[in-house]
Structure formats: structure tokens, C-alpha cells
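Below: protein 1.
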Amino acid sequence: MFRFAQIEMLWWLLLVPVLAVAFYLYTRHKRRQLLEFGDKELVAELMPHASHTRPIIKFILELLAFVLIVVALARPQYGTKEQKIKRQGIEAMLAIDVSNSMLAEDVAPNRLERAKQLLSKLIEQLRDDRIGLIVFAGEAYIQLPITADYVSAKMFLNQISPDLVRTQGTAIGEAIQTGMRAFGQNRSEASRLMVIITDGEDHEQKALDMAKQAAEAGIEIIMVGIGKTDGAPIPVPGTNGFRKDRQGNVVITKLNEQMAQDVAAAANGIYIHCDNTNTALRAIQNEVDKLSKADIEDTVYTEYNEQYQSFVLLAIILLVIDFFVFNRKNKRLSKIDIFSDWKQQIQAQ
């Protein structure tokens, strides 16, 4: 099992493209300054030991060293010992709607990001439980099988976006069916819960049928509606515009509370509205506290070996190489021509 003990340090890698662009702009500026002195060939003769490639090589070495140091600071670890542990908890599948309508900004920063924030805080509270992740739009997929690995759960949660499901729609029935399959056939004494976060735009009979089947299987469903009933336009990523229909009208997406309430009722569950407060989180936690907990056996890694040393060593090697690479050509080394005898033989022939 591989993991980063301090995965948040990897955010520093976002500086890599920034540094690359800054170096490119600086290099281009320096070349323009040299051209202002005169003809390119004349300037080259006046600066015989100047090198255009060496600064680039030095920058690449330093950039790679920076990347390796950041990875080392994130503390890569590899699990070496498995242990079966028992804990008192429940089994929960968290399903999140990733359809385009979830990009609407009637809750801050938008429906999808607010849903991810809610689930992130919920995962932090489900410390003794097993959890899994499902993403759905027109189809549903298991993003993370049910597990006690909360680090992986948060990592997968952060990666959720509308690009994960190409088929558009709000197939809540598919999500419930996928969740039931993810729990597996073996029943445990621990309660089973599905938390489904959606704006519930589409109404489908399958959602009600599957909700009833989930109730019969002993799975409680909490429907969390996100957004506002008066609706909001759907931003188009990368632009300042909004999605439009075939007639050119801006599409307004509205929270379908009635649909979410119907599904919750069919499953003998509850409906909760999510806004910009922590009300929904507290309501979900109150329901979780009511559920019966049982011994859950899980296999976890209890010992991890630190792997950062290799990255630090590679970074040091690159910095040592960088130290011996000069920005200017070496006068003595430039006079050495290891191919001189070979060139003379060719000329003699």
C-alpha cells in the first residue's frame, strides 16, 4: 500500500509550470537585450564563451530537484505490515451527482464543490466506519470500493469532477443499484447507509423502485438536495458564458426537492437540504448516531516505511551536477577536441 503521509505538500508542484513560464519569459527578455547591441553573429563573436543551452540545462536540473524535494516533503510511504482490526461502526456508501447541472453557483462556490466539502467533513466524522464513493450522472460508477482507508477516500473525493461520467442525466436509480452491489452479498450486523447528494433534476421511476429494494435489503438512504428551487444558470468551464438550449436560451437548473423527497420516502429514509451552512452535516451526523453499530473487521496497514530518502538523494545528485554546470563555456575545456584525430583521418582520405 503506497501513500503520502503529508499529501497536501504536493500542492507546491503547482509552482512548476509557473517557474517554467517565468524562466521562458526571462530568457526571451535577455535575448532581446543582446540583440539590441547589434547583429546576432557579431554579438556571438564578442561573447565566444556564452552558452544558450547551459542555462536551460541548469534550470531543468534545478526544477527536477525542486520536484523531488516536494515529493520528499510529502513523505511517500509504503505499507509493509497488514493487520486485521475490529471496530464498532457502520458501512456507508457516499454517492455524489456529477452532472453538469452541479456546476450551478446557487450555493458557494458551486453545487459540486459544496457537496464535496460536505462529504469531506462527513468522512472526518466517520472515523470508525467503512466508507465508499460512487459518482453518477446518466450512469453510476464506483469511485472507491468500501474501505476504512480515509486517506484514499479524501484523495478520490478531491478528484471528482463532471468529466468522470460522460453520459449526462441524474440516474439516481443507477446510483442506488450500484451502492447495493458495492455493499456485497455478505450481510453484517452493522447498519448500512447510503448518502446521496444531488440536485435531483430528472425524475425516473427506477429511482423509486430501487429505493424500495434498498429498504427491503436493510439499507437506509439519506437524500441530500443541493441548490435552490428557483434555479441558476450552468456556467461553461473555461468561459464567461452559460449553457444554452437548442433555441439559444440560457438553461436554468432547479433543485427538484419533490423528487428527492419521494425517493427518501420510498426508502423509508429522510431528506435533507444542503445550503451554505453546516445544517446538513449535523442532520446527517444525527442520523448516523441513531444507526446500530457492530464489529467491523478490516485489513489495514499498520507499519509504513518512509521512502523520502531516495527522492532526497536524487535531488542532491542533481544539485551537485548543477553546481558543476557553468552558465559560460569553460575556456580550457572548449579547446579540447577529443575527435581531432578522427577528423584528421577523414580529411586525409
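Below: protein 2.
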Amino acid sequence: MRGMKIRVALGLAALTIFAAAQGQPTLTELNQRLVERLKAFQSEAGFPGATFAYVLPDGRQGAVAVGFADKERNKTMQPDARMPAGSTGKTFFAAWILQEIEGGRLGLDDPLAKHLGGEAWFKRLANGEAVTLRQLFLHQSGIPEHVYGEAVHQAIRGRGDKPWTPADIVPFALDSKPLFEPGKGWAYADTNYILLALAAEAATKQNGYAEIERRFLRPFGLKGTQPATKRDMEGLTMGYTTLGRDFVGQETTLDDKGAFRVNPGFEWAGGGFVSTSQDLARWALSLFGGKVLKPETLTLAKQGVAARTGPGDQYGLGVQIRDGEWGKGYGHGGFYPGYLTEMEYVYDRFGVAIQFNTDSGQALLRGRRRVMLEMAKMVHEATR
């Protein structure tokens, strides 16, 4: 093992020397340019802090940070800062469920009723009898989003340290009217992935979080990524919320002890992880670079339907498919009260991710994905 580490170090050193010989910046120089670009953007936009990371297929990587992890305590943001990743976590649940489909324990066109129809609450679910797993994956179920409304907000704020279970989340998704017939429209909803994960756990008798840790977090070295199941988690970054104030109850997300003000477990399969930009960039490279799913499954996952998230946007099987100047990018954005995240596989060769400790889109001016892609272009031009 020690010899392997020496060979890898020598190999990366050789790549750096080669880059310098070709007139390309070294990784140190590239990372400094990335810091300067992110600082300039922060100065212009005024957000508290941010991290950005990239991971190249040859093992080279970098992570940078600007601003504050806690403005009140004058705590500087670090490249390995941990923040809730919001809906970016759907990619972990989707990858697990797609592997179960590869193994034949689930079918993409299974009716949801096949796996959950025996539940006492099932008949109260909009479109429950008609919807399939594929339609849930693609947000074509017609089932409304369950996370909004004062009843949900009160439940979240009043939860305290009591853990959330899927059974606690389901009631908020019941007794609503469908938005449209399954397959006849598109509407993004965390509810779709809650139901997907419930079906997968019922069919496989496995725990989704445990399987994701076993299959992905440990094997791919995602040491900063952890299921968000409790208030007290190590190394959290303070978040500043405007859009999520109804959830949190205050404008800051952490209490005086550095714990979440509310239990994040209500998110579960709708997102459900605390992570770092570097971990998410590595995950983007691993997942969309072909290290997680069979080639035919990955191809299927990347076949999207029209999504109402932006001009030309599509949504696949747990993946947002969006245009870049080089072609299609594959990844996912995330919102959690106090935080914004983007991760993507870009230029068909490397992974990038960016996280902000604010949920105010106005504080970002251009939008988080645009900033990430501007920096990804710098990485591409310096390393191609």
C-alpha cells in the first residue's frame, strides 16, 4: 500500500511537471485562480461563504473556499466545510434503487401498489393505484409536494431531537388531490422519492441509508458525507435562511452548540445528506463517469423528460440534465433551509460541485449553477 501511494504521488508530480512544460498552470496556480474568481463573485454578490471543488478522472483534484462559515463568530469558511446538500442527495437514493433494479428485486415499471398497496394509508395517496416507479423517478406521478404548509412547518419546528421515520413523513403526503394523471405532466416533488425509497425498502427488506453507506459512501471515500438524521452532527457550517425561515423558525440554522435548530431527518429520500463540495464532485465523477451503474442503466438514467426548471432542461432517473456550452451536463441541484448546492459531471470527463451557506438566490445574482460552470470552465481549460 505504501509503495502504491508513492507511485501515485510521483505520477501526480509528473503530471504537474508536464502541465507546466505545456504552459498550463499547476494545480496550485489553478486553485489560486479559482479562489480569486470566487472571491470576486462574493464581493459582487455579498453571500456569506462558499466552497467549490473539482475531481479529475486521473485523480487530480482541488477544493477552495471563501467567506465565512459563521459571520457572527468570524469563522472562516474552509474547503472541507460540511453543509446539507438538499435534493442533491436524491442521486444517492436513485443510484441505490437503480442497482436494485439491475439485480431484479424491483422493476422500473412496477406499479407502486405492488410494493406499498397493502399499507393502511395507501388508498389515501393521490394517484396511488395508477402510478409506477418510473413515473416517480421522473416526477411524472402527479402526486403533490408534501413539504409545504403550516402543518408541516409546525411539525418540523416542534420535533426537537426525536428522530424522523418514513412512517412519520407519509401522513403529510396523504389526502391531497392529484395534479394530473400519471405520465401526463411534470411536477417536481420530494414526495416522489420518499415513495420510491419506501417501495425499495419494502421490496428488498433493506435500509436505504445503510445500503448507500455500504455501497457508495465508504467505497468511494466520501468521508465528509453522512445521512442527515439528527440535530447534532460534527463540523456543521452555519446557514443563513430567508426562503426556509418557516422551517427553521429563525434566520440562522444552528444553535449556540453548533447543532441544527430543527431535526433534518424530515428530508430523508428527498435529499437527506450532509456533505462537502469535494465529496459531491467525486460522487458526480463516480456516478456519471460510469463507476456505479451498468452502462445500459446509466444510459437509461440519462434519458430525460422535459422539466420545468429552465429552458431545455430535462429530468432523468434521479438526474437533472441541463445544457452547457460543451453539451449536456448531468447532476443535481439542492436546496435546504440556509444552504444551496450544485453538483455536475461536466465536459464528459470530470466532476464539480459548489455549496453556499445561504438559500437566497438573490444573494447569488447569477445563480449557483452558472457560477459553478464558470469555474468548471477554468478547470477544463487548465487541465485538458
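Residues 1-21 have pLDDT under 50 and may be disordered.
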